[in-house]
Amino acid sequence: MGAPRWDVSNARPGISVACAALHPSGALLHVPFLTGAAPALPPAVGINGGIDILDARTGALRRRIFLPEPLAMLSTDVDGQHGSFLAIDENRQRIFALTTSGLTVMQLASFPLGIGSLSPTTGSISGGTSVTQRGRGFQSGTKVTLGGKSIAVTFKDLNTLTFATPALSSGSQQLLLSNPNGESVSLDVGFVAN
User: How far is CA 22 from each of CA 26, 130, 156, rounded to the nearest angstrom?
Assistant: First the structure.
């Protein structure tokens, strides 16, 4: 069973989607998955599954976490569309999942890199616009390229970077973020220079 595709174009952090959890930064979507059909009756035995962490903008799978036991209610909620299984703590460090034996808490060593939002999204072609980049999985060595130009970045925390835009050609600019471990993510229309 492949990763489900979700339309989260109108989703906002803090908005609940049945059986899925949108990371507070708006960058990542956490979705339960099964690797086989759910059993006809509880208790849920003999099935495997876990949580997929998807890029909230593209739906691309960023990380798959297998759980030692099935998520609760998957034995009756066979389409995975109605139950609430997942939550993320307010500090964005832990994932909580309801499994067949109770609450399972996962603390990831590192979160996948993800782009949430830029503020502002437009600025002058001459550069110098102060931008706050929200997302997830940023590291102190995260590099940013805007419109093909490398720029100096200030690391605020795992969810926030700031930078000033360079001089750019007019129009839409691609935003590319890269972590020291080689992980990267891009946004084709990350910023518009005018």
Answer: 6, 27, 22
In the chain, CATH 2.60.40.10 covers 114-193
Contacts of 16 (CB under 8 A, 6+ apart): 84
Summarize pLDDT for 138-158 with one digit per residue, the tens: 999 999 999 999 999 999 998
- Residue 21: predicted pLDDT: 81
Say which CATH class 114-193 falls into: mainly beta
Query: For residues 114 and 133, what is the distance between their CA atoms, to the nearest angstrom?
Result: 11
Distance CA 7, CA 58 (A): 9
- DSSP-assigned letters across all residues of 89-122: -TTS-EEEEEETTEEEEEE-SSPPPEEEEEESSE
Peptide bond into 43 cis (omega under 30): yes
pTM of the shown model: 0.74
Q: pLDDT of 102-143, one tens digit each?
A: 888 888 888 899 999 999 999 999 999 999 999 999 999 999
Query: Between these two residues, 119 and 45, which has the higher pLDDT value?
Result: 119
Beta bridge partners of 52: 31, 64
Closest CA to 142 of 102, 150, 33: 150
